[in-house]
Design a protein that fits this description.
- The protein is 32% helix and 24% strand.
- The chain is of the alpha/beta class.
- It has a single domain (3-158), classed as HybD-like (Rossmann fold, 3-Layer(aba) Sandwich).
- Helix 1 crosses helix 5 (132-150).
- It comes from Geomonas limicola.
- This is Membrane protein.
- Keywords: Aspartyl protease, Hydrolase, Protease.
């Protein structure tokens, strides 16, 4: 099983860069097996739809605009995304998620199992650091991803643990 962990975000808008910071957090703190690819998708959006087509399972991490407090984490499945049950799009790279999946369907590409972890941002102001609630969210989302992967027989181990 080929797994893609895709972090989306803009690193110059503080919390908007959460997905990219998340991928870097996993690289730094976890041993990742060969069948798991950590991918910094930045703001590429639809331009990297092929990455989704190459995987059997995709875990996407980004910020969302929805009711709740900064640092609250939400989990969505492919059906939620395709039925537009995900919250309002926050940034240009999010324009591509539903469209990316539709494009893949039109091409008769395989449909990977897809999970989207969204976290509520505290600030989208210019800056390259996460706010405290989102900094704390890195390990919270990592725990969720580790458990999800464990449920399909894939183990991410903490380095030096």
């Amino acid at each position: 099983m080929q797994i893609l962990i895709y972090g989306a975000g803009n690193l110059i808008l503080s919390d908007e860069g959460f997905g990219v910071h998340f991928v870097r957090h996993l690289e730094k703190n976890y041993e990742v097996p060969d069948n798991v690819e950590l991918y910094d998708g930045g703001t590429l959006g639809i331009m990297v739809h092929f990455k989704f087509e190459e995987a059997d399972k995709v875990i996407l991490v980004d910020v969302v605009a929805t009711q709740g407090e900064p640092g609250d984490i939400f989990r969505y499945e492919r059906e939620d995304i395709m039925l537009k049950k995900i919250p309002v799009k926050m940034s240009p790279h999010q324009i591509g998620l539903q469209e990316m999946l539709l494009l893949s369907e039109m091409r008769d590409a395989p449909k990977p199992d897809l999970t989207f972890y969204g976290i509520i941002a505290q600030s989208l102001d210019p800056g390259d650091q996460l706010t405290p609630p989102l900094q704390a969210g890195l390990e919270k989302v990592a725990g969720l991803v580790v458990e999800e992967l464990k449920s399909v027989g894939v183990e991410l181990k903490r380095k030096n643990a």
